[in-house]
Amino acid sequence: MESIIKLIGHFHPLWVHFPIGILLFAILIHGLSSWEKYKKLEAALPFTYLIGGLSAVFSCITGYALSNNGDYDANLIFKHQWLAISVAVISILGYVFIKIHKAVYLKWTAFVLLILIFLTGHYGGTLTHGEGYLTKGVFVEDKQVIKNKPLIPNVQEAVLFNDIIQPILEEKCYGCHSSIKKKGKLRLDAQEWILKGGEDGLVLHAGDPLKSPLYKNILLDPVDEKHMPPKGKPQVTEQERRLLEWWISSGASFNKKVKELSPPSNMQSVLLAVQNNNGPKIQIQAIPSAEIGPADQKVINGLKKMGVTIVNVALNSNYISANFITVPHANDTISDLIKKINDNVVWIKMPGMIFNDPLVNVLADCKSLTKLSIENTNISDKQLAILNDLHELQYLNIVNTKISLNGLMQLNNLKKLNQLYVGQTNIKETDLARIKTVFPNATVNFGNYNVEKLITDTQILKVPQKK
Fold first, then answer.
1. Residue 273 to residues 194, 268, 352, 416: CA-CA distances in angstroms?
2. Which of 8, 141, 163, 218 could be disulfide-bonded to 158 (CB atoms 3.0-4.6 Å)?
3. Which segments of 17-172 does DSSP mark as H helices, in order?
4. Which region holds residue 464: left if phi is over 0, alpha if psi is between -120 and 50, else beta?
5. At what angle do helices 45-67 and 2-10 cross, to 10 degrees?
């Protein structure tokens, strides 16, 4: 008998949409028939209400059978179940009102039925897809999802499970394994439930990922019915897979910090990626949308003679990048040349440059600038403040400079800044919250990272051979 009930329950996802479609069609016919032009449609109302009501009854039966497996939240099941029963009852009442010619009652029946259908569908969708499924990713809820992720200014101080692993489970697993839906009688939304396992036994074997279904099922072929997350759902990324594997391999601790677990060298880049990926990602628009004429070739040649590498940032583009890696000292000639092509320059790399005020003023006039790398330089807080009018700047590297938090906070006009490298400065990781008040969309890197390379980072020198 238990197997038969389970089989009947499996028909619920297939059957449940039939009464919804029929009854919504009945409500549409009822509305249209109020116009003389569509009056003849009334003839279809008895049939649609009857078929809709009977199919709703059968849907309730299959739904009840499905709910007996214990996979779903009892409170939500209660609401969904009685709303669905109400839909069936009201539908059949609608058929009766038509037969006894109670048009006034039928009008209210259609109105109430419409509300009940939407409420029933909402709770059914919540049971199937998780809480907030209706608006998730549609309006501003994506920002809320990011907001709820723990901020990790220093990944070494993060609690591995709470700050790193649990957000992965929440995003990829809670839809089927939480308090709302307990597929396979498995919940992954708290330590006690993870350790308890599901109807097939334990899902976590500390120290052995390949014996842990929580991890092993991720590795299965997506067409395998045991593959998790199921096909069609957001899948676990390679970075997330490695984090889950390391968490289980290191003992599946629920309270230890990353630094207490002595992460191996092959996990350092993954953990730093977690630290660097806080907050929304904004793609750098390297090339401004506005068209511009070509830079003065004499100026380009003058800079190249001084050792500056000049490269067009894209094919058929007049915007350029300038790499001053072989030019250690600023001088009036460099400042004058940059000034003449300031509208064309979008990327500037000046590692180790000895700055002076004229050069900083010239950089401030490069209004198209999107990337600026001035690491290992002598730039001061006062000079940095002059760059506050670079409204297009999206990438700033001030690693190994004497810039302080107060100096950085002066750049409050850089609304597009989304990548900020501040390692080995007077800015501390504890300053992250204040930095976010000025640069809410920026990924802030405090060190131990791989700085993004520009195309001009590699230079090839050709030395003519003597004949």
1. 26, 9, 26, 21
2. 163
3. 17-32, 45-67, 74-99, 103-129, 141-148, 166-172
4. beta
5. 130
What percent of the chain lies above the pLDDT cut of 90? 32
**Annotation: CATH topology of 297-457:** 3.80.10
Calpha distance 291→300 (Å, rounded): 19
For residue 409, what are its two tokens? 């906070």
Query: How large is the angle between the packed helices 17-32 and 74-99, nearest 10 degrees?
Result: 40
The residue type of 217 is N
For residues 381 and 407, the answer to whether their CB atoms sit within 8 Å is: yes
Helix (H) or strand (E) holding 312: strand 309-312
Name the residue type at position 14.
Answer: L
- Which amino acid belongs to residue 131? E
Task: Say if residue 187 is exposed, middle or buried (CB neighbours under 10 Å; 0-12, 13-18, 19+).
Answer: buried
Closest CA to 350 of 382, 317, 383, 318: 383
Per-residue pLDDT band for 365 (boundaries 50, 70, 90) equals very high
pLDDT value for 236:
87
**Residue 127 phi, psi dihedral angles, 5° rounding:** -65, -35
| Residue extents of the structural domains in the chain | 2-129, 142-276, 297-457
* Local confidence band at 252 (pLDDT 50, 70, 90 cut-offs): very high
- Contact between 114 and 92 under an 8 Å Cβ cutoff? The reply is no
Q: How far apart are CA 93 and CA 114, in angstroms?
A: 14
Tens digits of residue pLDDT in 185-244: 898 989 999 999 988 899 999 999 999 999 999 888 777 788 888 876 788 888 888 899
pTM: 0.45
- Pair of tokens at residue 61: 């039966």
